[in-house]
């Protein structure tokens, strides 16, 4: 059986101040009417079981948003590595011979997702390798993982190297060399995941989970993404093309690719009105605000709650640093 694991425990700090600790981005409906989480759960309605994994502080809001799904609550938010180790352990424990299909809840997807997902799940059970879904890159984005493809086997290609979030120069080199983006969507059997995780920080964690102590397992592990913990080190990784229109709604800049622009190139998200005078290619978002822009280009201007953010869209990835700094200063 196919167990879809929807990751919904991230804070989405690059979408600050719309995304906050009490209102993470998967519970926002940016660029649509349903929340990102609802859209993701709908996307996997063909799975035999849908598990939404999240951290304790979001559990109630997640249950309210997707009452039809099983909600698996991690004892603590420790990023996607521990989250997926826990969900994979849960799937192995509760379902016979599961294939796990893991997917983030911050994606924009248009097209035949089911066909691609089923193809990846089949490759995962046939090869017993870890499957990552690959996307043809259209720019040297530093927010993604990069997959270097090796020998081609028709439905899938071997993965030679996996490099999470390279710097701009390396990303450019990868795009020129024909690497793929890691869609952040994965498929594996619990056996394959355990084998790949054994010599990583997730190995001891899985043993403690086997011993029936999730609290201790999460207590002892440091936050780490599955990309760093597993994919950058594993030998047995293959890639299957995702083959659909895909984007990660991770930064304010991403909205420029997803939403229609007016004649000044302005993109508006949420509930905001904009008046532009000689202002071009800006992204404006808000929760009931009127924003005026005069003589500025290429900015994201976001007003949400009692907070305002202004950042050049090309530095949109840096909002994560900002949020870390805000938290440090309390
Ligand atoms: N359950 C749970 N627990 N989910 C989490 C946690 C956690 O502690 N931390 C993050 N998540 C969820 C987020 O809510 C999101 O849906 C998903 O995991 C991925 O996290 P992101 O923070 O959005 O990752 P990313 O976009 O920087 O990078 C990943 O996705 C890219 C493609 O979208 C990586 O896999 C990259 O390699 C990939 O290119
Ligand atoms: Mg993301």
The CATH architecture of the largest domain can be named as Alpha-Beta Complex
Q: What small ligands are held by the chains?
A: guanosine-5'-diphosphate-alpha-D-mannose, magnesium ion
H/E series: EHEHEHEEHEEEHEHHHHEEHEEEEH
Number of spatially distinct domains: 2
Strand content: 25-35%
| Name of the CATH first level of the largest domain | Alpha Beta
Number of helices: 11
Rg: 20 Å
| Helix content percent band | 25-40%
User: Overall pLDDT, averaged?
Assistant: 96
CATH topology of the largest domain: Spore Coat Polysaccharide Biosynthesis Protein SpsA, Chain A
Global outline: globular
Strand order of the largest sheet: 6-9-7-8-10
Q: Structural class, please?
A: alpha/beta
Instruction: Give the termini separation.
Output: 46 Å
Low-pLDDT sequence parts: none
According to DSSP, the number of beta strands is 15
Characterize the biggest β-sheet.
Answer: 5 strands, mixed, barrel
The CATH homology group name of the largest domain: Spore Coat Polysaccharide Biosynthesis Protein SpsA, Chain A
